[in-house]
């Protein structure tokens, strides 16, 4: 896990800081992660990261250090292999999280490390999400997923449609996948007024290989 953060330019201490800074809000949804949060075990189907999940404070840190209130599903969840925060917070013997126990120090640390994270990760106007090509039945393959189009600088009214134009392995034009508008979203600084999901496109395995991977003469 340390190596993964190192690839993004974060030292081990910074890895702990960025996780502690992010896990003060929100939680884990049972519907998407049923092994981390067992179904029907929480009122809203969400296990919060700390006792004040809608407030940006250091409760996730003090809860970890005191052990008095630590509902963190990535610390004590039923899926042992998914207890990533347990591994991260304790990786340096609690040295880093202890330095964030003071509320003022926590906010200062988070401000610095989250700014680095934002400045390190480039922003893109088009962001694919969970794109998959799956085998369906014995003979078919199905493409699915979502695409987020940032409309902070490009108004939604200027976007008539979005298509995924695939190329084969030789660079020639292949299948074109249409999309359907799902809804709008927004963040702290940007708006994603168009959330796009590819239409369910189902072709035979042979057709997909012809369209995406091989020249027709190869089959």
UniProtKB/TrEMBL annotation:
Entry's Gene Ontology molecular function annotations: heme binding; peroxidase activity
Highest taxon of the lineage: Eukaryota
InterPro entries attached to this UniProt entry: Haem_peroxidase_sf
GO BP terms in the entry: response to oxidative stress
Identification of the protein by name: Peroxidase
Organism: Capronia epimyces CBS 606.96
């Amino acid at each position: 896990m340390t190596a993964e953060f190192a690839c993004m330019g974060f030292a081990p201490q910074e890895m702990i800081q960025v996780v502690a800074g992010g896990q003060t809000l929100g939680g884990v949804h049972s519907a998407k992660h049923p092994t981390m949060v067992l179904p029907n075990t929480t009122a809203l189907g969400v296990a919060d990261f700390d006792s004040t999940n809608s407030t940006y404070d250091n409760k996730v840190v003090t809860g970890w250090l005191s052990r008095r209130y630590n509902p963190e599903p990535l610390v004590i969840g039923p899926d042992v292999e998914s207890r990533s925060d347990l591994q991260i917070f304790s990786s340096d013997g609690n040295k880093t999280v202890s330095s964030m126990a003071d509320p003022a120090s926590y906010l200062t640390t988070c401000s610095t490390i989250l700014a680095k994270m934002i400045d390190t990760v480039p922003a893109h106007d088009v962001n694919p999400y969970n794109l998959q090509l799956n085998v369906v039945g014995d003979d078919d393959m199905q493409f699915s997923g979502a695409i987020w189009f940032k409309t902070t600088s490009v108004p939604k009214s200027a976007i008539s449609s979005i298509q995924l134009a695939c190329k084969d392995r030789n660079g020639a034009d292949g299948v074109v996948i249409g999309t359907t508008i799902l809804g709008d979203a927004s963040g702290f600084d940007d708006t994603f007024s168009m959330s796009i999901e590819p239409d369910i496109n189902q072709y035979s395995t042979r057709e997909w290989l012809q369209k995406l991977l091989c020249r027709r003469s190869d089959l």
